[in-house]
Design goal:
Elements (H helix, E strand, L loop, with lengths): L19 H37 L7 H20 L9 H23 L7
């Protein structure tokens, strides 16, 4: 008499829990993105008020000052990262490009929306 193997049902695969390091990395990426969004929006608002103030004073419009404000917003992010203890040494060139692009995009969109006459009451 030979013994036959008992058929077993395959065990369900339980997903592994997310490690603490992955959660920290995800939270760091979200934080960096939100900082870039906020910096871009604030830079756009500052540019709008500087543009309307200089136009009301009769000064000529210059595009250099708004570009410099946007660049300052990008540069200040590194210092803000140090304050909130995000390790800037681990960030690569592509990460800084991403930060700069998100800041630029939100700066441009915010400033453009504010410059549209239909959104700002006279």
């Amino acid at each position: 008499m030979t013994e036959e193997p008992v058929p077993t049902t395959p065990a369900e695969k339980v997903p592994m829990p997310v490690s603490v390091l992955e959660k920290d990395a995800y939270t760091g990426r979200i934080t960096r993105t939100l900082i870039a969004v906020g910096a871009g929006c604030i830079a756009g608002i500052i540019c709008f008020y500087l543009t309307t103030t200089s136009a009301a004073a009769g000064a000529g419009e210059s595009f250099l000052v708004p570009i410099l404000i946007m660049l300052v917003a990008i540069i200040l992010q590194k210092h803000l990262f140090m304050i909130i203890r995000i390790n800037t040494a681990r960030l690569e060139k592509k990460d800084w490009f991403y930060q700069g692009f998100i800041t630029f995009a939100f700066w441009y969109v915010t400033w453009t929306i504010l410059l549209t006459e239909t959104t700002v009451p006279a």
